[in-house]
Amino acid sequence: MIGEYPPKIGGISTHISQLKKELNKLDQDVFVLTYSNCLEDKVYSTKLPKKFRGIFFIIFGFFKGINIIRKNKIDLIHAHFATTPGLLGFFLSVITRRKRILTVHGSDINVYLNRKIMGQLVRLVLSKYPVIIAVSPDLAEKITHFLKGDVISIPNGVDNLRFFPNVSEKQGIGFIGALVNEKNPRDFVELIRELRKKGIVEPTYIIGDGYLRKELEEISNGLNINYLGEIINTEKYLKKFKVVVSTSKTEGFGLSILEAMACGVPVVSLVSPSSEYLLGDSNLVVQDKNQLVGLVEKIIINPELRLELSNKVLEKSKLFSWKKCARDTFDVYKKLFE
What we know:
Helix content: 40-55%
Number of helices: 14
Radius of gyration: 20 Å
Mean pLDDT: 94
CATH superfamily of the largest domain: Glycogen Phosphorylase B
Low-confidence stretches: none
Shape: globular
């Protein structure tokens, strides 16, 4: 597999890590080529400079990848994300004559596909794979109409050993995600500003980091927002929150949304492909910032409503598992060799 991997924090690294673990249980030997600094067995890291990381990943990853494939007699190359990992996977597949498959995760389709230069790269990568897995039906639908190959939707799972309800007293409003434009964290800060005006002083936490952090800290001065940075044990906080808010409008799946749901925490989200998929039948998706403020306020001050929504999202989360994700992915692998 090619892509992000722990200790890098994010949806793709979690996906590859969990898929590797579950495929191992199906007696599959899985090797990972990544630029994350990882010492785990069968995970090969490529140290790269921060500038032009994608280009260097293709160059250094190409030679390392050939060695990994031949040394371990690998049968299939599975790339994750339709930019440089997907391009590297294609090159390795051609040179080593191994079968290939690609998983698209969200921003590669919802963000980069719409950009001039990156969009051309994404379309090129997509066109080079006979089979593509999408982590949500919406992503699959967006690319099916211009691809000749098969597109299959296999959703992410959730780790129920980490993410489960806690009966402790709930407190706090949470935001989990990278502090980048795609996640739209400024709208979360504005949400808290409006809630403070209404007299709601609920403790607020932002879990994540990114290039917008300094700006966000400046514009949120005096709002009592706690910036926790990137943390691994997000479940420690999720289980205590009264509500989690997602302001991203381009989320492909929304793994942090699902993890909050598995903890029985209501998630209020601005409308996005992932929020409709995960929360659409729970009446937790809103169209604009005014509706966002109104619904979050109701959940904070109404414990009966909060309990009702908690039960709804918890039940919905039970439809997703990494075991099922791995089995469905393995079925796709087997069809490639038929």
